[in-house]
Amino acid sequence: MPFEPLASDFYSYESLLDDRERAAIAELREWLEAEVRPVINGYWERAEFPTQFVKPLADLGVLSYAWDETRPFPNSAVFRGFVAMELARVDASIATFVGVQNGLVTGALSRCGSDEQRAEWIPKLASGELVGAFGLTEPLSGSDSAQGLRTTATRDGDEWVLTGAKRWIGNATFSDLTIIWAKDVEDGHVKGFIVPTSTPGYSATKIEGKISLRPVQNADITLDHVRVPESLRLQRADSFRDTASVLRLTRAEVAWAAVGTAIGAYEAAVRYAGERVQFGRTIGSHQLIQDLLVKCLGNITASIGMVVRVSELLDAGEQRDEHSALAKAYATSRMRETVAWAREAMGGNGIVLDHDAARFFADAEALYSYEGTREMNTLIVGRKITGTAAFV
C-alpha cells in the first residue's frame, strides 16, 4: 500500500526513511489498523495477550528487523525506532512484546551468545517459532541490579545450578525460553543463561491486578535448583557490563515506544475533538482544547527529534549510555504529560476504553518505569555532566 505520512509527525521525520523502509512501515501500519486496533481494548480489559498476532508479526518481518540470523542490525536503528513507534501508536503492549522478543532476548543472544548459540536460537525467535523472555529484575532488585542481584549460579561439572527469583518478566507465562541473569557464586560476576521454560525447577506465575500494559503477561519466576548445561550459558556474558550492553541497545527503542504511546493518545484526542459537540460546535473549535492539542504535539515533535538523533548515533557507533538514558528519561516524561493532556481533552469520556486515550494513559505508567526509571536515567546523565556518581 502507498505510504501515508502521519499528521502527528509534524516535522516529517519519516522522510528520513528510504523507500523500502517506508513501504515496510506502510505494510505494518495497515495490518495494525485492520487487525489489532479493532480488538485490542478487549484484550486489555481481559488482561490477555493476543498470541495469534505472533506469527503475523513474524511474517511482516517485525521480529527479524533487529537481527538477521547471526548478523546484527541489517536495518538502521532509525528504522527500528520507527517500527517501535508505529507499534506503540496502536498498542504499547504489542510494542512491549516485540521489544522483549526482538531487543532483549534476541539482543542478548546476539551480543553475548556464541556463534553456535546465535545460529541455533535467533532464527527460531525471528520466525515466531519460539517466544522468549528476559529475566533480570528480581523481587528485591530492580534499579540496583548491577550490585543487588540475588539469583545465583553454581558450577557443578558440566552444568550450572540456578537458584533465585525474578519479577516483572514480560512474556514469561507463555515463553519457550527465558534469558536468566545470575551471579556466579565463585567469581561474583553476572552471567547469562538460556533456560528452556520446561526445565525442572522453573516456574512462572502471572502477576495479577496490573493497571498498565495489561495484555503483557508479566510473571514472577521461581528458580528452584534449575540445572542447565554449560552449552546454554551465554558464552560472551562475563559481567554486568555485558548485560548493560544489551540494555543500552534497547533503552532508546523504549524511548521510541514512549513517543508512539504519546502519539496514540494525541491522535485519539484529535479524533474526539472533531466529533464531540458541546455548546453547539465541536470541541476542537474551542481555544482551550486547541491549547491542549498543541502542547501534546509540541512534546511529540521534540521527542521524535531526540530519539531520531540518538538512533543516528547508534547507527554511527557513537551512542553512549548517557545518550540513550537522556532519550528514555525525556521521552517518557513528555509522554506522561501528553497522555494526561489527551485524556483531559476528552473530559469524563477519557477514562473509558471506548475512545482509546484511557488505555494509552494507563500504559504510559509502565513505560515511564521499565528499562530504567526516569530517576536512574537522570543519574546516568548527571554523572556524565558532573563527573560524579550520585546513585546512593
UniProtKB/TrEMBL annotation:
<dbReference type="InterPro" id="IPR037069">
    <property type="entry name" value="AcylCoA_DH/ox_N_sf"/>
</dbReference>
<protein>
    <submittedName>
        <fullName>Acyl-CoA dehydrogenase</fullName>
    </submittedName>
</protein>
<feature type="domain" description="Acyl-CoA dehydrogenase/oxidase N-terminal">
    <location>
        <begin position="19"/>
        <end position="129"/>
    </location>
</feature>
<feature type="domain" description="Acyl-CoA oxidase/dehydrogenase middle">
    <location>
        <begin position="133"/>
        <end position="226"/>
    </location>
</feature>
<dbReference type="InterPro" id="IPR006091">
    <property type="entry name" value="Acyl-CoA_Oxase/DH_mid-dom"/>
</dbReference>
<dbReference type="Pfam" id="PF02770">
    <property type="entry name" value="Acyl-CoA_dh_M"/>
</dbReference>
<dbReference type="InterPro" id="IPR009075">
    <property type="entry name" value="AcylCo_DH/oxidase_C"/>
</dbReference>
<dbReference type="GO" id="GO:0006635">
    <property type="term" value="P:fatty acid beta-oxidation"/>
</dbReference>
<dbReference type="InterPro" id="IPR009100">
    <property type="entry name" value="AcylCoA_DH/oxidase_NM_dom_sf"/>
</dbReference>
<dbReference type="GO" id="GO:0003995">
    <property type="term" value="F:acyl-CoA dehydrogenase activity"/>
</dbReference>
<dbReference type="Pfam" id="PF00441">
    <property type="entry name" value="Acyl-CoA_dh_1"/>
</dbReference>
<dbReference type="Pfam" id="PF02771">
    <property type="entry name" value="Acyl-CoA_dh_N"/>
</dbReference>
<comment type="similarity">
    <text>Belongs to the acyl-CoA dehydrogenase family.</text>
</comment>
<keyword id="KW-0285">Flavoprotein</keyword>
<dbReference type="InterPro" id="IPR006089">
    <property type="entry name" value="Acyl-CoA_DH_CS"/>
</dbReference>
<feature type="domain" description="Acyl-CoA dehydrogenase/oxidase C-terminal">
    <location>
        <begin position="244"/>
        <end position="385"/>
    </location>
</feature>
<dbReference type="InterPro" id="IPR013786">
    <property type="entry name" value="AcylCoA_DH/ox_N"/>
</dbReference>
<keyword id="KW-0560">Oxidoreductase</keyword>
<keyword id="KW-0274">FAD</keyword>
<dbReference type="GO" id="GO:0050660">
    <property type="term" value="F:flavin adenine dinucleotide binding"/>
</dbReference>
<dbReference type="InterPro" id="IPR045008">
    <property type="entry name" value="ACX4-like"/>
</dbReference>
<dbReference type="InterPro" id="IPR036250">
    <property type="entry name" value="AcylCo_DH-like_C"/>
</dbReference>
<dbReference type="InterPro" id="IPR046373">
    <property type="entry name" value="Acyl-CoA_Oxase/DH_mid-dom_sf"/>
</dbReference>
